[in-house]
Amino acid sequence: QSRVQGETEPPVFPLEVSNQDKPIEDGEMIVALVSSDPFEGTLSRPFYSGSFDAEIMNWFDEALLSTDSDFEITNDGAATYELSDDKRTITLRIKEGVYWHDGEPVLASDLLYAYELLGHPDYAGERYTFTVENIEGMDDYHAGRTKKISGIQVHDERTISVTFKTASPSIMTGFWSVPVPRHHVGDVTAGELTMEELESSEKIRITPIGFGPYIIVKIVPGESVLLERNEDYWRGRPQLQSVVLKTVNEAIVVESLKKGDVDLAKVPADQYETVKKLDNIELLGDLDLAYSYIGFKIGKWDDEKKENRMDPKSKLANKLVRQAMWHAMDNESVGTYLYHHLRFPATTLIVPGFESYHDAKNLGRPYDPEKARALLDEAGYIDKNGDGFREDPAGKPFILHFASMAGGDVAEPIAKYYIQNWADVGLKVELTDGRLHDFNAFYELVKSDDPKVDIFQGAWGTGSDPDPSGLYGRKALFNYSRYTSERNDALLEAGTSKQAFDTEKRREIYKEWQALMVEDVPLVPTLYRYELIGVNTRVVNYSIDANSENRHVWKWGVSA
Amino acid sequence: MLVFIVRRTLLMIPQLLLLSILIFFLAKQMPGDAVTGAFMGKPNVSAEQMEKIREQHGLNDPWIVQYGRWIGDAVRGDFGQSFVHKQPVTQLLAGRIENTIWLSVATLVVTYLIAIPLGMIAGRWTGSWADQFIVTYNYVSFATPVFVFALLMLYVFGFVLNWFPSGGSVDIRVEEGTAEYVWDKLKHLVLPVLSGSLLLTYSTVQYLRNEIIETKMKDFVKTARAKGVSENVVYHRHILRHSILPIAAFLGYEITGLIAGSVFIETIFSYPGLGRLFIDSIMTRDFTVVTALVLISGAAVIVGTMLSDIILRMVDPRIRLG
Amino acid sequence: MPLLQLHDVTVQFPEKGGFLKRTIPPRSVVDQVSFQIFQGEVYGLVGESGCGKSTTARAIMGLNSLANGQILFQGDDLYQMSRASRKLRMKDIQMIFQDPYSSLNPRKNVWNIIAEPLRNFENLSKEEELAKVQELVERVGLNAESIYQYPHQFSGGQRQRIGIARALALRPQLLIADEPVSALDVSVQAQVLNFMKDIQEEFELTVLFISHDLGIVRHMCDRIGIMYKGRLVEEGTVEDIYERPSHLYTKRLVAAMPELNPEKRSEKVKQRRQINEQYELAADQFFDSSGRIIELRKISDTHRAALK
Amino acid sequence: MELTNEAMRQAKMGNQSFHSAIWREIRHDRMALVSLIVLVCIVGIAYISPFFLSIDRVTRIDLSSIYLAPSAVHWLGTDDGGRDVFGQLLLGARNSFTIGVCVTLLASLYGLTIGLIAGFYGGIVDQIICRVLDFLMILPSLMIIIVFVVMVPNYSVFNFILIMSIFAWFGKARLIRSRGLAERELDYIHASKTLGTPDWKIMLFEMLPNLSSLIIVNMTLTLAGNIGLETGLTFLGFGLPSGTPSLGTLIALAKNPDIVQNKWWVWLPAALLILVIMLCINYIGQAVKRASDARQRIA
Amino acid sequence: MEDILLTIHKLRTSFQIHGKFYPAVDGISLTIQKNEVLAIVGESGCGKSALALSIMGLHPSDRTLVEGIIEFQGRNLLQLPIAELNQIRGKRLAMIFQDPMTALHPLMIVGRQIEEPMNVHLTLSTKEKKHRTLQLLERVGIQNNEQVYQQYPHELSGGMRQRVLIAMALACDPVLLIADEPTTALDVTIQAQILELMKDLQRQSQAGILLITHDLGVVAEMADRVAVMYAGEIVELAPVRELFYNPKHPYTRSLLQSLPSATGQKQKLHVIEGIVPAIEHLTRNGCRFASRIPWISNELHEGEPILHEIAADHFVRCRCHEHFYLPAERMGDESNASITAT
Ligand SMILES: Nc1ncnc2c1ncn2[C@@H]1O[C@H](COP(=O)(O)OP(=O)(O)OP(=O)(O)O)[C@@H](O)[C@H]1O
Ligand SMILES: Nc1ncnc2c1ncn2[C@@H]1O[C@H](COP(=O)(O)OP(=O)(O)OP(=O)(O)O)[C@@H](O)[C@H]1O
Ligand SMILES: [Mg+2]
Ligand SMILES: [Mg+2]
Ligand code: NI
Q1: Enclosing H/E stretch for E240
Q2: Where in the sequence is the signal peptide annotated (chain C) (predicted)?
Q3: Residue D5 predicted with pLDDT over 60
């Protein structure tokens, strides 16, 4: 059963299908990639960017190391690992019998190749991340000064070790263990082809290979993918004879599910009510590693120092006002009515998905307009001219500008609703430019600290690493609030230090940090969310539970 | 004739050039660029890295330099790299353009297949119930927004009646090159094409009808009748031949309508073509793709107008010499 | 001094053609035409369709530009004047158009139509203008209340009268009438012709009367010029032209006039055949080496013809 | 000849202007008459709605009552923000109609100016304008409008109108130009020239009135098109700012199949309303067109 | 009387205006014989074209009503089904239209257009057809017939086009030719040629011609008999000489007087008062011309004017002609109202 959070009782979803029948031998599963856009089709881990590409890759490719429910690496994958005592060196040993789809064995050098690509000076992708950068000698390699990454040692065909500059618990969640078939795609380091050629190569777009349970047979670009069973899969014989992945417009997902055109599909929140009624469909749901937020601009990015700087003169510099604004927001209603309980009020900035680190006791700042009014009064923001809106302590009109993103059917009512909420406690908020901004324009405004924006609404996906410093650190560009404090620095630092390898310790640190954020309110976490998957009742052995054996793709099957 | 085609082609070049400058300029004016689009919402990319990528793609050069580079490449068939799709634009378009061509050509053909008989009937039997029906249909089709109509078509025929596939361009299971493949492609085209063409018929029907009514009163039609030519021949040989001319002249502009329509149709029927790519690309600021697409659409219209000019020249002897 | 003098007037229209639409040498539609019109006379210009009659008239009115030559009105070259003084000068030259249906703006009532020149040149009060318009309207034989009517409420003959009233509003000295009756029925035609004659006498107008109908020209004019392919081929008094045509083209024109006497049918046919044959035989006599119609030669004091 | 005042007045009344021709034509065409009445009703109600409908109330979000089915309180149910659809419909119709009219008027103004100049002067002026128009006509305007909409920093209804009208006048200019060219060859224009009337006066007071029926016909017909285009752009998300009620905003909700099937009251009335408005305009437009051409008149 | 080609009896052709039918041709009876040129003259709008189109069956059936009898070689054309009518038109009955500019299909080469009636009525091979067409072109006086065969109408001058139209009409050797103002759109010199051509052809083929015109000069040159039409009726019908020497009906006399006389006397022309009323405003009882000769008192007209045969083959409608005088005559100029031979 999925975890339940917050004060209200959102619906409860199973994590595993109830069908207990035996899978049939020649079954075929049809999986929907729910989108109105075609998938991009860059089917290689270092290069892909679309979430559908990731979904497709799940079927034919996997990481060498498996992960557990805390997203930490485990030893039951295609390779096992060992962490040295100083927690700086990790050694991987690839199991016997792990073969690429073309019959070649998966080699340690294939994983090396992945690092060589990620760190390559020409690499323009987004996965040159902290854990990659943190490898010894990576700086030199990345700058093109050396041809070899000194921190990575290939011991034999199937053993490889990686040494990091600093010990960080991020290794446990962020370690890269997806090999790239050097022999198949071609060797960039040997000059066989350029990085750009590789990126657009047919080998990763039309005929990609992996060592996962299914083999790609055919791709209709942007539309659908046909996979067949990999008889030599290292875990065992996959259940399905074949799999079809195809893009299905959001508009027709429900119909497709109902008709049995697809067996598996993510269900958009607004269609939940309809899907719920279908009797050939079972709904599985789990918390998403993401949350929505309302941010307050309380500083600027200092381009010289490359760090964030708070601005005591900003309109929202007073934290009482920010606290009041949180209290004024009725997230409950938004989650209930606009998202049909599939979203519910968020409390802290670490999502419940991180079971060990989310502080379930911290209730954030629940909806309480009275308290909001009291806080505002206390802060000196009082309606002096009787127009229903509060003026600032100096008696000047106090108007805030709110930037929000267009997209989705509910963006507009939500933005309007929050504005109404704030108006109810006497705060005058207007939409920046009088409209919702599309994705790029929105981030352009927010990122450049445009003075037209005082408040902004966005959402973050956290990734599998609970460390929030990428979003809230002093040096984090994505810290759009531009909030900084000594205490924050210290806590974030501590959260990734060596002592944090101790989960208990780390939990304490993050609990404190969550409390700090609830107090200082650089931004308001508004909603946590469920991700819903509609599954046809004929599907067996299907689970989204990270603890279940059936979470593995190869187990999934269909019954007669 | 050849001279005319050559001249007409030469005339296209400055038009295309002007178009490209305009489009490039517009694209550059948009807030945010490809890098912003590609990396937003992904927290782990540093500012320096993004700056580096910008530098790499020459996004910091003055626009005239960027334009020069871009147009130089474009002439060679290289529209640069799509930042979002990490793929040469040409390659990206190649995958989609075939679908769009299928869709547009089929839509155009079906439009004419529907519109010309309707226009003829309405024009020939003006005032009859058939005419009234056609005129009403025409008004309604003109007044119906294409997206509403397409949605309804999808529901009625794709789901409720389940006659046609509801999305995509071809089933994954059929072999390329076989008759089945073509058949399947056509089946996938039925709904999008019908939704497009049933509404596109408006101008053609309207024009043909008016034109036939006008032509009916012309003296040369009386001459034909006075020769004892039967009514059917009068309509087919004399009136139609004369009335169909302006329709040919409209071909080029019909293409504009097609492009606009495809944006809606492709979105609703999840048909992977250029129209949808355009909307996606504009959302993600993938401006190499946007520019290429607008340029291609513009070029399509230019070629279309040229084609109608040439057709007109071929069928209308009066222009041939004039 | 003649009221109007044309000296070697040439009007050209550019011809389009060739690769990339280069302009090829323009075509002379009116080619070095010279004639004079004296105060008080009616000068007829006759010729077949497309020979350049209207173009000549339009050149005088300043609606076409001249490629060459001069047009002198009362001795002043109209094309050398400043715009403003020419505009004032043009007040004395007015035109009646061929098609009574298109020469009146269908959106304006008669009052506004007739008052248009008055408003351009004379600053009249509304009452004065009304009075003047009513006077003109009555002068051309229409009801006074018709000034509130629109052109479509009138017959062709009445419209032509409105056109004449408009032309007369400024009391011009020279009236150019470009086929004023060829769009009208015989009975209406008679009405307009009579009327024009009256007006001409009453106002002592000088008229350039353009027509392709020799019968009408004979009825109306004092002197006649015959045009052929942009050139003048013969010029003379009515008697000169009808009694003593010297140019074969003129003869041919005269012979082509329908004969009103059924008895003379065959005679006429014979005469036409004869002239046609002659014309075909002697055709090259009338052209110079470059194929251009030759210059006029004086035959008598009043009579000139393009003969060797 | 002495004239009685009575006779004068009757003569005055006897004339039939284009307006009365239109009116007569509409009166004789039942569809057009019905259309006119319906359109006047719709537009009338939409425009006077602010007097009995508080805009604030209509646009206020009420999450507890989203997607309510039609009832006595909400005649046409509520939309995605719990707002009364009927009220939205009225505001939307008003906005859409206003935008359509503004765009049409602006576009006509541009088209008229350019077209008249090209048509009146002809020759080289016309050649240049024609080349420019040729170029403009080939622009994929929907795409470029979208690009513009995305580009404009301070997006407002006014900007939207401006952008749309910038791309809506080419055809008009052409039309007016070609009729102008034909008109300029007519003798009444020559006559005016010979009478010493200045060019601008001829353009405005001689040519323009004769093109007026053409312009009016074109305007009524393109009005429908412009309203449709506004809706379409809003549907794609590049139209009106999304908080502004427009018929397009309501129909755009039909992108969601659940709404199409189960919440018809959100989009169907708007879709029908736009259909009715466009049909009405069309029928009236056709009647106006007939009125402009004496040969086609029924009346 | 087997020489009679066409007998029209009480033909009435009405057009629908504002939902009501108004006759434009109002009770006309005529006969045309072989080898005869019957001219119909009248002012614009008196119904000449309507008559011609009625004979050819070219009026659109929905807005026109054609009643009476049109008997062509023993068959009433008005009662023939369209298929049988098509057997006749273009073959034995052909028509030449007024405006050569618009009467030819602009997109077909001339040769094809001339061959079209042959396709319908004759069974000829392609070669024979072409041969015959070239011959026809030659017959109508086109020398470079091979070239013209391939040309489009816009490449030809007005006179040439009219010749082509004549060739087309002659394609199947018709016995009756209806020519609706065949020369109005042409220059005088060309008009003379075309008329001569028609006369020649008629003499060769012995066909009958119904010549419609408003030009009395053309009548004088071409016709054997003349019918003068006014407001949908025949007001005078006479052999051509009789008509010009001894015109009786006030309308005929007025028309002749309103011509700028070819003799060159610059006397005032006669002006017919008023205008031809539009068919929907026409008063149909009594003498229709009465309103245009107001100086003739009403009693002098007949109540129901009929055609009187006042001399052999000379018919005049209404008795008023007996008392008619032109205003100019009253004022002392007692010369005969008719044109005297010079
Ligand atoms: N604007 C123009 N551009 C080019 N050619 C022209 C133009 N106006 C007239 N022409 C040509 O000039 C020639 C003379 O024309 P014009 O109108 O003067 O003849 P016309 O004698 O008045 O004939 P009609 O009797 O038919 O009125 C014609 O061949 C005509 O085609
Ligand atoms: N289709 C029609 N509908 C209504 N009225 C018509 C129609 N055709 C002709 N008329 C009217 O019928 C009358 C006779 O027309 P018709 O064309 O026969 O005249 P016409 O003698 O041939 O004149 P013209 O010399 O101008 O050719 C005219 O008053 C005309 O207005
Ligand atoms: Mg002329
Ligand atoms: Mg006629
Ligand atoms: Ni009488």
Answers
A1: helix E240-245
A2: none
A3: no
Domain housing E68: 1-88+175-189+203-341
Residue D65 maps to a domain: no
Measured by CA distance, the residue closest to atom 29 of ligand 2 is E45
Mutate which of E14, E41, E49, E214 for ligand 2? The one with the most ligand atoms within 8 Å of its CB, which is: E49
What domains can be seen in chain B, in order of their start residue? 1-84+284-322 (no CATH), 90-283 (1.10.3720.10)
**Percent over 90 (pLDDT), chain A:** 37
Tell me which H or E stretch contains C105: none
Whether E167 maps to a domain, the answer reads: no
User: Is E155 among the domain residues?
Assistant: no
Nearest CA to ligand 1 atom 29: C50
**Total domain count, chain E:** 1
C174 or B22, which is more confident?
C174
pLDDT score recorded for residue A250: 76
- For residue C13, what are the contacts with CB-CB under 8 A and spacing of at least 6? C26, C27, C29
DSSP 8-state secondary structure symbol assigned to residue E321: G
CA distance D264 to D94: 21
Confidence of residue B322 (pLDDT cuts 50, 70, 90): very low
Residue E79: both structure tokens together: 């009662």
Gyration radius of chain D over CA positions: 23
D212-216: list long-range contacts, CB under 8 Å, 24+ apart.
Answer: D212/C107, D212/D18, D213/D18, D213/D288, D213/D291, D213/D292, D213/D293, D214/D175, D214/D176, D214/D179, D214/D292, D215/D108, D215/D112, D215/D172, D215/D176, D216/D18, D216/D22, D216/D288, D216/D292
Phi, psi of B134 (to 5 degrees): -65, -40
Domain contains D70 = no
Q: Distances from the Cα of A313 to the Cαs of A297, A306, A309, A396, A486, in angstroms?
A: 11, 21, 12, 14, 19
In a domain, E138, yes or no: no
CA B21 to chain centre: 22
Q: Which residue has the tokens 């969310």?
A: A529
> D141-189 pLDDT, tens per residue?
888 888 888 777 677 788 889 988 998 898 889 889 988 888 888 888 8
> For residues B287 and B59, what is the distance between their CA atoms, to the nearest angstrom?
11
Q: What is the pLDDT of residue A195?
A: 83
Give the CATH number of domain C4-14+25-305.
3.40.50.300
Q: Do D141 and B297 make contact, defined as CB atoms within 8 angstroms?
A: no
What CATH number is attached to the domain comprising E57? 3.40.50.300
Q: What distance in Å separates the CA atoms of residue A524 and residue A294, rounded to the nearest whole number? A: 5
CB E5 within 8 A of CB E75: no
| Residue E246 belongs to some domain of the structure | yes
Q: Give Cα separations from A291 to A272, A328, A457, A530, D285 (angstroms).
A: 19, 19, 11, 10, 53
Within-domain flag for D183: yes
State if residue E276 touches ligand 2 by the CB under 6 angstroms criterion.
no
User: Which residues on B lie below 8 Å from C21 (Cβ)?
Assistant: 7
H-only helix segments in chain B = 2-29, 34-39, 47-56, 63-75, 89-124, 129-143, 146-153, 179-216, 219-226, 231-233, 240-243, 245-268, 274-283, 287-315, 317-321
Residues whose Cβ atom is located within 5 A of ion ligand 3? C 54
Burial code (b: 16+ CB inside 10 Å, e: under 16) for A134-161 equals bbbbbeebbeeeeeebebbeeeeebebb
DSSP H/E element including A19: none
In whole angstroms, what is the distance from residue C294 CA to residue C285 CA?
Answer: 9
Q: What is the DSSP string of C131-173?
A: HHHHHHHHHTT--GGGGGS-GGGS-HHHHHHHHHHHHHTT--S
Distance C178 CA to ligand 3 centre (A): 7
The count of domains in chain D is 1
- Give the structural domain span for D233: 1-6+19-53+86-297
- The three-class DSSP label of residue E157 is coil
